[in-house]
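Hi all, posting the design record for the shared folder.

TITLE: backbone redesign
STEP: 1 of 1
STRUCTURE INPUT:
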């Protein structure tokens, strides 16, 4: 990256790191860093402290795979969320997208990806056997597959449906509102809510 006006190695390193974040290019990163520098006490110092704390404390929830600062995330630890429903999503970003709409009040299971022979990602890597165990252990009545409407997402959905065929749980999937090729994290809250309400049996 070309040197900035200050030609300061530390500032340039910060800009380069910021530019790696989604949605931020070099120009946006420079503007963001400039704001932080101008408001060091109000923004930069608290941000640095928070980043350091989260970097040390963040871990995967032992139950669902959500990011938390404790062994069990707040959703899994909430007795009110034990509704007998589990929503299966690909990534933490998808869980956050579902939570934004405040429509689903059950619990989650995060796969961490989709089945892919090319990338050597199989059922074990996605924790599908653990999902099957949760269905039995938690007395789950419905498993909602909120996977992205891509080829890999739908392949994974059908695999999970087959894996749970012998259980007592009904397996459903999001219906209208989610376009083919669409990803949950990019959908608006209303679309996600409509898709969840209109879910259908897989």
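Okay, here is what came back for every position:
SEQUENCE:
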């Amino acid at each position: 990256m070309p040197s900035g006006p200050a030609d300061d190695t530390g500032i340039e390193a910060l800009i380069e790191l910021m530019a790696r974040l989604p949605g931020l290019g070099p120009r946006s990163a420079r503007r963001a860093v400039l704001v932080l520098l101008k408001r060091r006490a109000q923004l930069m110092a608290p941000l640095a402290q928070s980043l350091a704390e989260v970097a040390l404390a963040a871990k995967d929830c032992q139950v669902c795979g959500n990011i938390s600062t404790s062994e069990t995330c707040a959703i899994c630890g909430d007795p009110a969320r034990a509704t007998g429903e589990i929503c299966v999503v690909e990534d933490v970003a998808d869980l956050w997208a579902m939570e934004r709409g405040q429509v689903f009040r059950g619990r989650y299971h995060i796969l961490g990806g989709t089945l892919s022979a090319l990338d050597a990602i199989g059922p074990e890597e996605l924790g599908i056997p653990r999902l099957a165990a949760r269905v039995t252990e938690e007395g789950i009545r419905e498993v909602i597959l909120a996977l992205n409407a891509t080829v890999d997402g739908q392949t994974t959905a059908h695999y999970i449906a087959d894996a749970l065929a012998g259980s007592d749980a009904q397996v459903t999937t999001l219906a209208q509102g989610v376009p083919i090729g669409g990803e949950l994290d990019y959908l608006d809250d209303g679309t996600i809510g409509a898709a969840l309400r209109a879910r259908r049996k897989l």
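COMMENT: Residues 149 and 181 are 5 Å apart (CA to CA).
Let me know if anyone wants the other runs.
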